[in-house]
Amino acid sequence: MRIMFINNQGAGYANYVQIADNTTIQQFFAIKMQDQQEADYLIRVNRMPVPKDYVLQDGDRVTITPVKIEGAQPVLLEQIV
Amino acid sequence: MKKQKKLIRLTTLLWDSLKRLNRSRLKQIQTVMDDFSDKCLETTKDSHLFNTAVEKGWLIGAESIRSKIERNLNEFSHHLQRFKELINSDESISPNFIDIFGELLQIEQEFGKLNIDFKEKTISVITEDIVLNDFSFGPFEIRLFINQIKKLYNDSPYRIIAIEPNPAGNNSDVTHPHVSGEKLCEGEGHVAIRAAIEQGRFNDFFTLVKSILQTYNPDSAYINLDDWEGRGCYDCGDTISADESYYCEKCDREYCGNCATYCKVCDTTVCLGCSIECPDCKRSICTDCTNTCLECERRFCEDCLNKEGLCEDCEAERIENEEQHSEKIDAEV
Fold first, then answer.
1. Predicted ipTM?
2. Residue B113 confidence (pLDDT) above 80
């Protein structure tokens, strides 16, 4: 099945991904955010917080946002465009 | 019902703004595409010229065209790379009206309240108190200017406003280690913030900004927390704590120990600019405790001028002159 995954870590990746049936949000986090701690992220499914054992459904929208991001001197836009 | 109408009106505004942003991005792609196209045309022309030169046996001309193509190749690959990057970034997911409406509802859930100002065309949220390494900076308002979203690629469309400011001691513009003049140094969050705005994920935008405000990066802060409460020496700019600062009573400014002294006559603390070194006794003295030598017009401390207002050198010179004068008169007599 296919879900929308928005990863706000790094470049702010947003795209559809294929996952196996009966994947829980905890399993999904472990796969996509390897070696990361759940406590360091805001995890939302369809804009709502969900329990760890929530089983993802086809068409769900998963957002993972770090709660801590290091600010620094601005990066020139030309370096990114 | 009134609230729903307000949110629908706001959604329309944001949606229009994103469409304008998208148009500006497409225009940028068009510009780069035109550049790339010009380069291709140039190569085609060079190819025809090269072919003609070789066919006619103009070997020097062919060689010259070859070196021109060689020079152009580097430029060409730069244009190709830039073109590819822009075309690839076109994969962003365009939000629809319902998505944006959902974002606004989510902001209210996550932040408690979404402030809307239709007159100024802004939306904002207020964070809880931001505390970094036991320093409290109070809550911040993250204010997004809807009309400026279209300028996303050139300027930041939002401001970070301290509600209960606790600015750095030596720069009142710095209200957070990563905020100066209401602008956030986004650091690692820069690309994600831009993507969130481009894709109309406004809740993610506010959350990302909040995440940066909640994080302290000492390696790239405007002012480190260790120096936060210090004030700047007016002369050299060094950060000074309240205990180490010296107040110049003449110019009403604060200085560090290296840039301040005290008047050896009246014991007043003064900065180096408001004091001089007496040319005679070499003591530092404030400008109020100096007097001008009536002869040479240099400034001395009061103790180094005689009753007639002359410095030691001028007094000696006068005595010498007087002696010479009396010797001359004696000789004439």
1. 0.86
2. yes
End-to-end CA distance of chain B: 120
Q: Which residue of A has its CA nearest to B179?
A: A71
Tell me which chain B residues have a C-beta less than 8 angstroms from the C-beta of A8: 192, 196, 204, 207-208
Rg for chain B, CA atoms, rounded: 36
Q: What domains lie within chain A, and their CATH numbers?
A: 2-80 (3.10.20.30)
* The domain boundary residue, chosen from B73, B90, B107: B90
Contacts within 8 Å (CB) and 24+ apart, B253-258:
B258/B233
A74 and B185 in contact by Cβ < 8 A? yes
Provide the domain count of chain B.
Answer: 3
> Is residue B184 predicted with pLDDT exceeding 60?
yes
Alpha-carbon distance A72 to nearest alpha carbon in chain B (angstroms): 4
- B29 and B86 share one domain: yes
Whether residue B103 contacts residue B202, with contact meaning beta carbons closer than 8 Å, is answered with yes
Share of chain B above pLDDT 70, in %: 97
Q: What is the pLDDT of residues B208-262, one digit of tens each?
A: 999 999 999 988 888 888 888 877 788 888 877 767 788 998 888 889 889 999 9
C-alpha distances (whole Å) from A43 to each of A38, A59, A63, B113, B324 are: 8, 16, 6, 20, 100
DSSP category for residue A43 = E
* B244: Cα separation from own chain's centroid: 27
* Interface contacts A/B by beta carbons within 8 Å: 106
d(CA B129, CA B127) in angstroms, rounded, equals 6
Residue of A65, A77, A80 lying closest to B208 (CB–CB): A65
**Burial of residue B141, with CB atoms counted within 10 A of its CB: 0-12 exposed, 13-18 middle, 19 or more buried:** middle
Query: Containing domain of residue B262, as a range?
Result: 239-328
Residue B30 has pLDDT above 50, yes or no: yes
Concatenated DSSP letters for B134-160?
TEE---EEEEEEGGGGGGTTTS--EEE
Report chain A's C-alpha Rg in angstroms: 14
**Are A55 and A23 spatial neighbours (Cβ–Cβ below 8 Å)?**
yes
CATH number at residue B140: 3.10.110
The amino acid at B322: E
